[in-house]
Fold Isoflavone 7-O-methyltransferase.
Amino acid sequence: MASHKINNGVKANEIFEGQVKLYKHMFAFLDSLCLKWCVDMNIPNIIHNHGQPMTLHELVSTLKVPLAKVSGVHRLMRYLAHLGFFDIVRIIQEDQEEKEEAYVLTYVSKLLVRGTDHCLSPMVDLILDPTVSTSYQQLGKWIHDEGNQTPFAMALDTDIWDFLSNNPTHMKYFNDATASDSQIINLALRDHGVVFEGLESIVDVAGGTGMVAKYLSETFPHLKCIVFDLPQVVKNLKESNNLSYVGGNMFHSIPKADAVLLKVCVFHQI
Ligand SMILES: C[S@@+](CC[C@H](N)C(=O)[O-])C[C@H]1O[C@@H](n2cnc3c(N)ncnc32)[C@H](O)[C@@H]1O
């Protein structure tokens, strides 16, 4: 493309390339929302349960989509395939002469199949929940605020922990999401268990509902595991011989143990 100068000394090719980049990021929210759509529709499980590549026709009939929306599903699935969530293969169905497109899971969408020990769909449920995601609309207001409130706190006029404790549905989203993330960590711990050998006790500070501690207590029956979190998070959770829950505020004090485990994610701190 010609790169002659135009107004203000900006080259035409820079304008076009800039526009492409700008639009890519401007529409990036659609990537997240298409992901949310496919998780909300349970498509990873539907394809997984189908046991073989699934055609559009099979998918829309399982989803019970009205005829008018079949092409919409087709477009969404092609876009999700472009993003790497599905592969598109061509298969021949019985009684047909022409090959047909069919969807299969990729290593990414396999992480969205609910009911496995490495499912991250609860994380998608939480992060793309409108209450959480729209709080980032507050960034402009937040940057001018002299206090230390997060955008989430500004949007809802309450601290995230108070919000969760007053909203059981979101509390469940949050706990399920952090537990799903911890399942993945457990896969890493499984291969590096040597780190915990020789310890008699460990406290998982801000350990949520105890997914990591549960794994440790089962893998190392002689290790005393304590999960420490806010009282409303750990109340009524099932303890075992070497697994206990303690409620409190980590900024005041934490239970004594040979080692401290601290694993938090920071999305709600920004
Ligand atoms: C992102 S979650 C991490 C949970 C778990 N460690 C994990 O990685 O799955 C942060 C945790 O910190 C807890 N938390 C927040 N403020 C706390 C405080 N002041 N004292 C103890 N726990 C707190 C929350 O209840 C929540 O379970």
